[in-house]
Amino acid sequence: MDSDQNAAPSPRRRAPPRSAAASSGGGGTITKKDLVNRIAERTGETKVVTKSIVQMFLDEIVRELAAGNRLEFRDFGVFEVRARRARRAQNPRTLEKVEVPPKRVVKFKVGRVMRERVTDAPLDGALPDDDD
């Protein structure tokens, strides 16, 4: 019997802090919390208020898309809902034919400024700060 089996379960550990590269766009994952912290710091507003505003903004986007509306943010991009027709597909493992029902999907078309900033960005992912 292994002594590790009798040991008490260890408490959950927090993930190690992300590197500066991850938080500055160096290929890491940026969370809503990261964005809230940045916005709160730049605006001088509290994190609680900033998080509430960011969440309201995201909720409104979802609400409008669910209603079938198109959202256009100049230079950023356009969100819209499109209908996909029903189709026949094939399970690649079993080769069984399956019917895929019609559904609505969200499409995003990148805007000019975003496209230029992303495609012209250095490969390390660092973008200059923009105070606009």
Q: Could you explain the architecture of this structure?
A:
The strands form two sheets. This protein has a three-stranded antiparallel sheet with strand order 1-2-5. It has 132 residues and is of the alpha+beta class. The radius of gyration is 22 Å and the shape is extended. The chain has two domains: 22-67, no CATH class; 70-121, Irregular (HU Protein, Chain A), CATH 4.10.520.10. It is built from five helices and five strands. Helices cover 36% and strands 20% of the residues. The model is unreliable at 19-23 (pLDDT under 50). α3 (32-43) packs across α4 (47-66).
List keywords for this structure.
alpha+beta, about 130 residues, extended, two-stranded antiparallel ribbon, HU Protein, Chain A, about 35% helix, 3-stranded antiparallel beta sheet, 5 helices
Q: Would you tell me the overall average pLDDT?
A: 83
Sum up the overall morphology in one term: extended
Which structural category do the helix and sheet elements fall into?
Answer: alpha+beta
Indicate the proportion of strand residues: 15-25%
The strand order across the widest sheet is: 1-2-5
CATH class assignment of the largest domain: Few Secondary Structures
Instruction: Find the CATH superfamily of the largest domain.
Output: IHF-like DNA-binding proteins
Question: What is the share of helical residues?
Answer: 25-40%
Could you name the ranges where pLDDT drops below 50 across 5 or more consecutive residues?
19-23
**How many strands appear in the DSSP assignment?**
5
The total number of structural domains is 2
Using only CA atoms, what is the Rg?
22 Å
The CATH topology of the largest domain turns out to be: HU Protein, Chain A
List the helices and strands in order. HHHHEEEEEH
Q: Describe the sheet with the most strands.
A: 3 strands, antiparallel
